[in-house]
Amino acid sequence: MNQDVAISFLAYFKKLKDPRIERCKRYTLAEILLLVLCAVICGCDSFRGMVHYGHYKLELLRRFLPYSNGIPGKRETYRLVQIKT
């Protein structure tokens, strides 16, 4: 992924309002959205596939964000996508 493009997306993600309850935020909004974006671009069509992609490409994703709690599970990813749509 081109570094400049990734930084542009991350800057946009920071402007989005996180609809989740504060105590339920184990992963940042940007971490989940970057995972979903990269996974979908690479052909993942399920939340399970996104999680598998994230585990496989964790080192790549960590070049842009810390992912200090690892990769969000399919439930966390699904809930956020459901809230945002």
Task: Please give a quick description of this structure.
With 85 residues, the chain is mainly α. It has one domain (3-14, 26-84). It is 60% helix and 0% strand.
Quickly list its features:
85 residues, 60% helix, globular
Structural summary, described in words:
This protein is mostly helical and 85 residues long. It has one domain. Helix content is 60%, strand content 0%. Helix 1 crosses helix 2 (29-41), helix 2 packs across helix 3 (47-56) and helix 3 crosses helix 5 (74-84). The N and C termini lie far apart (26 Å). The model has no long low-confidence stretch (mean pLDDT 87).
Write the layout of secondary structure elements.
Layout: H1 3-15, H2 29-41, H3 47-56, H4 58-61, H5 74-84
Helix pairs in contact: 1-2, 2-3, 3-5
CA radius of gyration is 12 Å
Number of DSSP helices? 5
- The 3D shape can be described as globular
How many E strands? 0
Main β sheet profile: none
Mean pLDDT: 87
Order of helices and strands: HHHHH
User: Which residues sit in consecutive blocks of at least 5 with pLDDT less than 50?
Assistant: none
Gap from first CA to last CA = 26 Å
* SS-derived structural category: mainly alpha
Oligomer: single chain
